[in-house]
Amino acid sequence: MNISDDSEVAGIHNVKLYTYKELRNATEDFSTANKIGEGGFGSVYKGKLKDGRIAAIKVLSAESRQGVKEFLTEINVISEIEHENLVKLYGCCVEGNHRILVYNYLENNSLAQTLLGESHSNIQFSWRTRSKICIGVARGLAFLHEDLRPYIVHRDIKASNILLDKDLTPKISDFGLAKLIPPNMTHVSTRVAGTIGYLAPEYAIRGQLTRKADIYSFGVLLVEIVSGRCNTNTRLPIDEQYLLERTWELYERKELVGLVDTSLNGDFDAEEACKFLKIGLLCTQDTPKLRPYMSTVVKLLTGKKDVDNSKITKPGLISDFMDLKVRPPPKAKPEIKTGSNMSSDSEKLGESTLTSGNTTSAATTLTASYDGSI
Ligand SMILES: Nc1ncnc2c1ncn2[C@@H]1O[C@H](COP(=O)(O)OP(=O)(O)OP(=O)(O)O)[C@@H](O)[C@H]1O
Ligand SMILES: [Mg+2]
Question: Binding positions for ATP (predicted)?
Fold first, then answer.
């Protein structure tokens, strides 16, 4: 299909369209040297555009061959969104079977690589920086959830989708992408066991997708940022493997401070750090209704609202639900199969979500490899 076909692009005014040739030039023919990552949607390349800007160029995988019009309609929505804490979409390419997204390139990579990554990062995440990152991500998500009409449920809030610019301002990436992926394709990337740990149980198990599922994932991320630890770490002793479980345990023992990242060498505001951990617990409560909305989370994080008088109930843990724990399998990686006929929870609040409807491919069957003996 040719993009110059007016009937296809009629009414789509705001999206900058790149030619395949320009993006090929920008990335030196999508060379491996320019490849900066690979996720559930495809490969990401760093490239220099004709106008001199540096971009992150995301080549969606072959399966995502949506019609040009549908694709552009979604892209149109995403490209109009601007917020300090959201990655800016510059435009896209829809030539032939190519579906490529062009984003603002962020210098300091993702939180998954810098804060939680195995490889050494030269960024020092001071308490101030962490607190700024938590508040920024909360603001970005509050914007998607509460300022946009229709609002957007991100569905994949996790450390690899939080990118950092040169000043370490956090930017949420990949919002609005879920609709670009055909319903029969796995969209929840679970190549790493850790991803499962971000999923609210009601979403992972029953496919109920609401803003509250994002808020759950945010809560997990918050605890990760404060503790400097991944939500799942199978190398730790069994009772410490699941960060959220551990957080709850320490909360009950009134020892939350013990969870704060030791690499801070004690240089942090203990009261504030414990408050953040409590907010993480508020966001991950088992009952979705009890989780605060993101605008409230922003107020709690910034001290405009008090955390202390909130009652916190036990977090929802998939491991509890399934009565088993996920282990990194020796060969086959944990995977979540998607169901094509899942309908999303018609959340009562606000208007319909961009990611609801029959494109919802929520996780229905967890097919990870388990060690059921635990
Ligand atoms: N705008 C960007 N600027 C800089 N690096 C980016 C940008 N977008 C993506 N990346 C890099 O590319 C990697 C892969 O991103 P991608 O979104 O494809 O996968 P992911 O976030 O790991 O998983 P998922 O597909 O579930 O989002 C990211 O972890 C990040 O390091
Ligand atoms: Mg991503």
Answer: 58
